[in-house]
Amino acid sequence: MKEGQKLWTRDELILTVNLYCKLPFGKMHKSTSEIIKFAELIGRTPTSIALKLGNFASFDPTLKERGIKGASNASKLDKAIWDEFYDNWDEALLESEKLMAKVKNTTVEKLNNVDLDDIPKEGLEKQRLVKTRLNQHIFRTIILATYNNQCCITGISNPELLIASHILPWSKDEKNRMNPMNGLALNALHDKAFEVGLITIEADSYKIRISPKLNKKNAPESIKQSFLDYDGKQILLPDKFLPDREFLKVHNDLKFIVK
To answer: What is the CA angle 52-179-57, rounded to 5?
Structure first.
């Protein structure tokens, strides 16, 4: 270690992975405003934050698949913290949000702008609803950042029109509710079509498939423009956290309407 440097703490690394999840890969440099603010928050330099983000990128298998290499000087503790997230996204992300709230001297609900006005004041039902809303907000933040605030099918970039869709449904797979590789950024129309199996994304090629149920001889122009024109085209791939191919296979095989 160079003179004047200080060891990274476990809490600092957890917070940095949290930031990694919320930043597009192309913004992980020292001049990014989010990195500058984060550096001030934990008492580090923007350069050190950018380098540490590069360390975590070196562990990201989706970046490796795209031929992108992160930094090569990651520590054993860096890898251990990364594995904690990768092996249990639901718990690790929520705990990192609680830690971020503590550092910012606020609550995790206020940090994530979670509205609590219409939920019970106490009890297990309150705990369940608060956790659900927190998880949904965190997941949305990560998925939209991962896809650079664009629908992966149409390129629509209005956040108000975008949904953080689950490949494996929220209600069916509790283990992967917060897994960034179980997410797609879709506009509301294509989110619904994906949910009911009228469209899918091929697991091997990330190409869009449109159900024959929509591809009828007399299909209106709106169906052609909104669906049929996208058939066979590749989605706009995220710069990290590529959709999990095994998850897509499940959707291809069990959900997609083939006739």
So the answer is: 20
